[in-house]
Amino acid sequence: MKIYLLQVEDLLPRREVEVNLSQVSKHIEDEVVLVTGAGGSIGSELCRQICRFQPKKLILMGRGENSIYEISLELALSKTKVTCIPVIGDIRDKDRVEEIFARHKPTMIFHAAAHKHVALMELHPEEAFKNNVFGTLNLVRAADAYQAKMMLFISTDKAVNPSSVMGLTKLLGEMIIRSYAAKSCTKFCAVRFGNVL
After folding, report:
1. What integer best gives the mean pLDDT of the chain?
2. Catalytic residues
3. Largest alpha-carbon pair distance within the chain?
C-alpha cells in the first residue's frame, strides 16, 4: 500500500481554474470598492484579496462592530497601502445605505452581507427576507442611482430550485440583480458559491 499526501485537487473531478490576476487588477486598481458583510467569512476574505489589487479606497461595511473592527485592524496590521474605511451600517436601512453611497461614491460593490444559515432562517423567515431580499434591493437601487460601474451579488448554490427559505431569498436577490442588469448602466452580476472543501 502506498501512502501519499492528499491535495485538494485530488478530490475535485476537474482542472483547477487559473485566475488572470492582471485582468482582476485592471478592474479593481484605483476604484472605490465597497464590501458589504465585510466582517463575515466571505466578506473578510474578499477584503484581504481586494487589497492586493490596490483600490483607491476600500469601504468595509457591516452591522457587527466587532467583526468590522477585527478586519479593519487586520488590514491595518498587514501594512496595506490601501485606505480602508470601516463603516457600521445595516443594508436593511435604506437611509444609511444612501448616506454611505453619497459620502463614499463606491464604483464597485461586492455584496456579501446575508443571512446564510439554512436552519435558522427556517425559524426566522421574515429576517431572511428583510436582509437577503430587501437589503439587496436597497443596495441595487443605490448602485444604480449613483451609477456605480459594477455590483457583484454573492449568492448560493441553494438558490437552484430552492427548498429552503434561505435559498429562496437568495434566488429573489438574483432576480433583483437580473432585473436591474437589463436596464441600468451599472453592470450587475451574481455568482453562486457552493460548499467548499
Report:
1. 93
2. 158
3. 64
